[in-house]
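Structure, all two chains, one model.
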Amino acid sequence: MSAMPLASIEGAIEFIFSPQYSNVTGGKKVGGIDQVIELAWNQLWLTIVALAIALLVALPIGLYLGHRHKWESFATAIGTAGRGIPELILIAFFAAAIGVGFTNVMLALAILGIPPILANAFVGIHQVDRASVDAARGMGMSELEILRRVEVPLAIPTLMGGIRSAAIAVVATATIAPYGGYETLGDFIINENVYGENGVLAGAILVALLAVSLELALAGVQRLLTSPGLKLRPA
Amino acid sequence: MNMNPTRWRAVLALMAALALTLGVAACGSDDDTSGSATETASTEGGDEGGAIVSNPENGKVTLTVGSKNFTEQIILGEIYAQALEAAGYKVKKDLNLGSETVALKNVKAGTISGYPEYVSTALTSFFGKEPEEVPADATEAYEEAKAEFEKENLTAFPPTPFASANAVGTTVETAEKYDLETVSDLEGVSEKLNLYGSPECRQRIDCLAGLEKLYGLKFKKFTPVDIGLRYTVLEKGGDNLSILFTTDPQLSAESDKFVILEDDKKVFPAGNVIWVTTPKVVEEAGPDYEKTITQVQEGMTLEVIQELGARVELEKEPAAKVAAEYLESAGYTG
């Protein structure tokens, strides 16, 4: 056990950049930048695809219901219920239905991403000032134009808030993907007996970095999407 | 379609009820009292020990029984916990701890008093032994592990009669299709087969790394899965291999469906179970601690362990109930 040091930030950083000795691999070293890049890319790609699917499902429903001001309790209840999705049970369920691998965990993560996106899209659109909508309608805009040119721009902060919390939930939960047949940075965290404590800490640091980068990227997207008239400017 | 509020509420209530039912069904195996309640564990080998005697002295001591995160370990944890309780100890349980690294860390930290470990796992995972260095003889392996544990200020009690090992398993159909009996038979075939194993398997010398190195096998693909899915991936059909345990109840109960390949080059060392604990706990708990643990494991033959596993894993009985019935039918409790 002497070869497996206790976790330290220095040790974790060393693990990230150069392969380390492991007790159980028969001499093969583990970790290092190549494996880190491979697993980080897997985690990012899994997150992107799952988020895209979640957006495809949740956005149209949320926007439509918000625009028609319908099924308010459904939309908000889904947002709340979404916090309790048992991901591992979903993975096991999909394993029996469609097998394990990328599709399995991607679907399980997409389901995790749907509730916040749907609920926030609904609330964002639903709360748009009715007077603005009536004015647009009075100007002769079609319903789709009202949604696209009045409601969505005004709802961007709430809408993006939903997408951002979905993204964080999905990228963080993608750590359990190795249980469903797809290797992500979670491999370092799950398998302490292979990677040692430094590997676990390295995995946690990398996932946190990935989540922060994703959050920053989405904040950038939000700035781009926000209508110039709505931006907060320094006085 | 505008729903009026009453109708809407009814729909919501229905959905809530549905969600609740699903939830209960998902974790409902714990409450499942149907099935073979009258069936009792085989009693062979259980009569040497006699009943456990409760010692009032032990009531001052609280022991926390740990276990790793799969069925066999949880059953063992329940058996040890209930036996120690019968001996008069105050017992807490912390089962489902995860891998051996986590379990051992908890023993060292004192958050659990001890947990059952496979002597082969202890030697390879904790003490850096190669799989082929693990002694085939249970006592010899135990003595070696105990000596290593003592250097770390830990100790271990003598081994169970049964041993468990990982094994490459597949469906009877696939084994017949490719004429597979031993792992060596996979030569020239493995490129067409997917291998499923726990996430740690890829890197471990007593798993995929060993199959590649010692047997020279290359698989079409290795896919990591949760240990609990090791039969699900085979049941899905197709030409697949999965890392199974030799003690799995499916191998005896469903021998027409699943088969394991003989490990002719010894990548997967077999290990009997030893109770890992600390000298400090041994001293505090007194002589009944070791006595009780070694006493109740006398009846644990491979057949008994497979039968107990079958009742939990296949018949969905609660592990605590199966453990209690084992202790009673073997005459340890009454």
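Residues 5-26 of chain B form the longest helix (22 residues).
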